[in-house]
Amino acid sequence: MSAIRGERRAEAGIAEGGGCREPAHAVNEVFGLLGKRWNGLLIAALMAGPGHFAELRRSVPGISERMLSDRLSELAEAGLVTREVHNGPPLRVSYRLTEAGEGLRPALAELTRWAEAHLVGGDRCPRIDT
């Protein structure tokens, strides 16, 4: 096995000999954050550009106002989303991806391609362009 392939297998949590091992800390962290219900969908919605609270709520069907507020706060605390207050009248708040949030674009585009190819109903996945 080449050194590069071995490194990739190790990064993915695959032990020599084909067995599994505990995933890398970074993998646990990213899936802990993005795998939480609504977070990935909110990031995908913000890939199209900044959005106001009501726009985000409409773009993620089924999310409650309370959950949207909680998830946006969590994503802001993680450094992926920033909250911007626009003085009115009326006072408006918008959310946008930070540089770190935008850095997820290639990964989400790859996940979208994978879902379209491998998941039943994958053609309904929102398109994230690179």
The number of strands is 3
Beginning-to-end CA distance, first to last residue: 31 Å
Low-confidence stretches: none
Strand line-up across the major sheet: 1-3-2
Radius of gyration: 18 Å
Going by CATH, the homologous superfamily of the largest domain would be Winged helix-like DNA-binding domain superfamily/Winged helix DNA-binding domain
Content-based structural category: mainly alpha
Describe it for me?
This protein has two domains: 1-34, no CATH class; 37-124, Arc Repressor Mutant, subunit A. It contains seven helices and three strands, in the order αααβααββαα. The chain has helices at residues 3-11, 25-34, 39-46, 53-59, 65-77, 99-102, 105-118; strands spanning 51-52, 81-86, 92-97. It is elongated, with a radius of gyration of 18 Å.
In short:
The protein is mostly helical. The protein has 7 helices and 3 strands.
Write the layout of secondary structure elements.
Layout: H1 3-11, H2 25-34, H3 39-46, E1 51-52, H4 53-59, H5 65-77, E2 81-86, E3 92-97, H6 99-102, H7 105-118
Antiparallel strand pairs: 1-3, 2-3
